[in-house]
Design goal:
The protein is mainly beta. Helices cover 10% and strands 55% of the residues. It is built from one helix and eight strands.
Length: 173
Amino acid sequence: MRRLWFSLVGLMVPLRLTSQAPTVPPSPIPVPVATLTAGMGNSMGWFGFQGERYFAQGRASVFGGLGYTPSVQTYDPSGLTFAAGLRGYTSGFKNRGFAEAAVCQVATVSDPYEARRLYGPCLQAGYQFATRGGFTLAVSGGWGWALGGVPSGSRSGQLLVGLGFGYTWRRRK
């Protein structure tokens, strides 16, 4: 019986010592370098892609979007669409908010003789979720003002929305 007791104690001591060993804290998430997203929204050129390059330790970025505007009705314009702007981010590397100032397509004008797309200044606020592994989700909303060619009786201000999924590259240590 004594031998069994010493055997059990002998087996449990190393287990107890290893469970008390200090744990290594997880390494911090590296600073983002660039993001590529695909989705819909004014800052992505309606249905398209957006490339983003970060600076200031990931707290600011410059972006460009290229997409396609489909013709929904008979006299709607369609074709390639672009957007370009700057973003400022809140602190954090995984969950963070942003504010954006850009030039983007705000509205389209349906006309049998001169269908056109209207661009102007756009302001949006949003949220970005970027995992350590790179998966990125971005949602945004705001307001844009169409400049030039707004038909009489139409509003120059329009609601803006955005939703994108993509990948964020981070700086290697």
